[in-house]
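User: Is it possible to get a 3D structure for a protein together with its bound compound? The compound here is 6-O-phosphono-alpha-D-fructofuranose. I've pasted both below.
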Amino acid sequence: MAMITTVQQHILQQQQETLKSTGREATGTFSWLLSGITLATKMVEAKIRSAGLDDVLGAAGAENVQGEQQQKLDVYANQALLHCLGLRDSVAALVSEEDEKPVTFNRDPEAGKYIIVFDPLDGSSNIDVNVNVGTIFSILRRLPPEHGTLEESILQQGFRQVAAGYVVYGPSTVLVYTTGNGVFAFTLDPKIGAFVLSSERMRMPEQGSYYSVNEANAAGWPEEFRTYITKLREGELGKEYSSRYIGSLVADFHRTLLKGGVFLYPPTTKQPKGKLRLLYEANPLAFIAEQAGGVATNGVSRVLDIKPEGIHQRTPFCVGSPREMELLAATVGGR
Ligand code: P6P
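Assistant: Yes, that's possible. Here is the predicted structure of the complex:
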């Protein structure tokens, strides 16, 4: 039988490597945390797979065949993550796109070593048309009390993340994550209900052939962004480009990670600070992109250096291969 590596085994192997290379005893806490996330995403995956069916069977009222209230999937995903992670005593706080305030637990606040920030189900409006959606997460270490409050721990710059990842629910369900030591992908094997290692130390191509942006907003972008897209179209980088925009961030990012190119959500007149969220969309994906050799900015400066002011803060988000991002810096960054 071919040997498989599950995500739990992988994390433990990584921690052994850390121990060997740094002598730093990595506690099992982290792998325990990650198993809480993977359990929640397996619950979400199962719910998504049956969502269409539940709708059909539950169409009569707001109830499904089990007579339970039909929950909106992003509410369900949020509950799943809060439940699976809330039980772990290494968690100081959970910050969710779905909750106005951080969720803390009436345990000794000093007990929690980690803060988990997540978008439980990004792009959930796409489920109705059977398009890929995703869960995005970011893990920060709680600062020692003498160095910062819990809120200051949550509002750390993205380069302080200890881990980041996403699950994309598509034709197959894929978990992609990094702990700062390369990017790894695991594909959910429904036969055994485990995420199995499928790609190691992923690298984003130096240049791609796709640009990904919602061109309906072009009139509302800063002029330099229109100039940039025109340069790509007119072959400034020496190749033809095709446009791909799924409108589901995790799906558009996953393609960019695998195929290269560039994804952009520029400032618009409607959203002058950008639409995407810094803490649980841009930061985790920027960490993964950089670990794979890619680049992530807000058009002008590195996403991971942005100092967050609020947990639901928005930012323009541009991420992709070095070549396309170099041209962006020259065109938009004014370099
Ligand atoms: P627009 C989905 O609603 C989402 O939050 C992201 O997943 C996606 O990248 C973006 O919004 C799409 O926004 O304005 O292009 O429809």
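Residues 108 and 294 are 40 Å apart (CA to CA). The mean pLDDT is 90.
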